[in-house]
């Protein structure tokens, strides 16, 4: 009875519940976690339980939530509502069984599907909606907050997913389009929010009061603290230039230029061959590339004992001796570490030679709230090495291949998962024909 009372209710800073287990089945001993914009969060938790016979396999892929509280008066716990990706039996001691659980968001489902597919005539919202729903996500698991320019942009004729997971596919397209995501909890439901606008974030901010580590704090339960904040600035190029080749008009120059740091920047960045078809597309892509660089020009790295520091949300700093630091920031990355092993040992009545302290610490990266965040291009475009077999697509009898005014064909590739009707399985594709003459042509070498 003493142990149960000691480990229950408000004594706990951290709690973990799995929907397939009783509410108080687990006690969080310690944990480590990481999260970032446009990434899956991941928490590794060491759990203690009085149940020594939990079926690990039955918990994989099931819902669970992890709550953190810093003990600040009137504070709300920060909760991660995700899925159990991995669950393992570790050891037994003192009548307790210790397990390790790995918690990930529902968006992790996208990582479990690896395939090839062709998508035709999709708008930007349709690309994301199609992939998310194909992975089994419900409509209340995600939300699109795209700008009107993105939502109303021309449909993309032909999109190929090739030997990659849904998560990799959607990540590389999001990076290309300047779209990123984070997680929000609303009414007990966690959802992934996709946007390309800094105004799409919830406006409220968690206030952190600056107090360097080591200074005494008589009101530790009254205010949330920030113990460290570093500002790091790095060089940026003057501008970004993107050029491409126009397949329909070889004489047309496709070029887009966007400033990054034209006044004090050093260097330039030039890119070619991004598969862009119009001047409008290439100018937009240059703008996104410039914003991706600019949002990393000045970053802030801090540490705090406050829970609730989640990527995609704002914090406001107060009390810093450098007045310009006292402002709002958008959190872009965070790592979390915590332990309440001391509470467990006290509850068991175990006397240790050294005092074991419970703690929580978050290290975070942030940018000023008036800077537009863009994801880095980390996912390479897949390449088909060599050749693949395919079928010329046509309506009617199929006696003759059908061409458009540019001499292009419609071709169905056999690796596509979904079955498409005749003449609806491809966009127009040019045929490359080797040819040679007395003073021109190509040479094949074996």
TrEMBL record:
Task: Report which superkingdom the organism of origin falls in.
Answer: Bacteria
Q: What InterPro entries does the annotation carry? A: T6SS_RhsGE_Vgr_subset, T6SS_Vgr_RhsGE, Vgr_OB-fold_dom_sf
Pfam families according to UniProt: Phage_GPD (PF05954)
**Alphabetized Gene3D superfamilies for the sequence:** 2.30.110.50, 4.10.220.110, Baseplate protein-like domains (3.55.50.10), Gp5 N-terminal domain (2.40.50.230)
Q: What is this protein called?
A: Type VI secretion system tip protein VgrG
User: What organism does this protein naturally occur in?
Assistant: Candidatus Methylospira mobilis
